[in-house]
Specification:
Layout (H helix, E strand, L loop, with lengths): L5 H29 L24 E3 L14 E9 L3 E8 L4 H11 L5 E11 L12 E10 L4 E12 L2 E11 L6
Antiparallel strand pairs: 1-2, 2-3, 3-7, 4-5, 5-6, 6-7
Length: 183
C-alpha cells in the first residue's frame, strides 16, 4: 500500500533512480549480510572487496545507525555496515522485539526531526540471503524512501518480518548522495 500523492510519488521514485545504483548495491549487501552476521560480538575485519557498482571499495564493519547520525531502533543488535566513501553506505541489523510495521513507524517519527522528508512507503517482499534460490524463505515488510535537502541525500529503509534466533525482524538502512540536478 503506497501512502503518497501522484506527483510526490513519481518524484520519490525518480530520486531513487538517480542515485539508486550505488544505493541498491549497498542495500543489497546489507540484506545479504542479515543472513550472515556471524556470532554476536564477533568483529569482522574491514575489507576492500565491495560491490562492483561502487566507485570506492566497500568497507565492512559492525556500526550502528547512530554512528552515521541516524536513529537506532530500540532492541536492535547484530549490526553489519557497509560504506563506500563518505557519500554512501548501509547498516543492517536484527530486532529483538517488534514488527516491520513498528520499525517503519519508529523511523516515521524520528527521521523528520533530523531533516529527512518522507517520500514514499510500499509493501516489500524479499528473499534475503539468497534471492536467486526459489526455495529461499520469503519475507514481507515495508520499504520507505526519504530525502534530505542539506546535504542532498536519499535514505531507503527496508524492514522485514523475518523471525530468526532471538529476533523478530530484520532491517536495512541505506543512504547515498543525490546528484545536484535531481530536484
Amino acid at each position: 500500500m503506497e501512502r503518497t500523492g501522484g506527483r510526490k510519488r513519481k518524484t520519490a521514485w525518480g530520486l531513487l533512480a538517480v542515485g539508486g545504483a550505488g544505493l541498491v548495491c549497498l542495500v543489497a549487501a546489507g540484506l545479504l549480510a542479515v543472513g550472515s552476521l556471524g556470532e554476536p560480538g564477533e568483529k569482522p575485519q574491514a575489507t576492500a572487496n565491495g560491490p562492483s557498482c561502487c566507485a570506492e571499495p566497500a568497507v565492512h564493519d559492525r556500526k550502528r545507525p547512530s554512528d552515521y547520525g541516524l536513529p537506532t531502533y530500540p532492541g536492535a543488535f547484530e549490526f553489519h555496515s557497509v560504506t563506500a566513501g563518505l557519500e554512501q553506505g548501509s547498516t543492517a541489523f536484527s530486532v529483538r522485539r517488534g514488527t516491520a510495521r513498528e520499525v517503519a513507524a519508529y523511523y516515521r517519527k524520528k527521521l523528520p526531526g533530523l531533516g529527512w522528508e518522507f517520500q514514499a512507503e510500499q509493501t516489500a517482499t524479499e528473499r534475503p540471503g539468497n534471492p536467486g534460490d526459489p526455495k529461499a524463505r520469503t519475507a514481507r515488510g515495508l520499504r520507505q524512501i526519504w530525502v534530505r535537502r542539506e546535504p542532498r541525500e536519499q535514505l531507503q529503509l527496508l524492514a522485514l518480518d523475518l523471525p530468526q534466533k532471538d529476533s523478530t525482524a530484520q532491517v536495512v538502512l541505506g543512504w547515498a548522495a543525490l546528484a545536484e540536478d535531481s530536484r
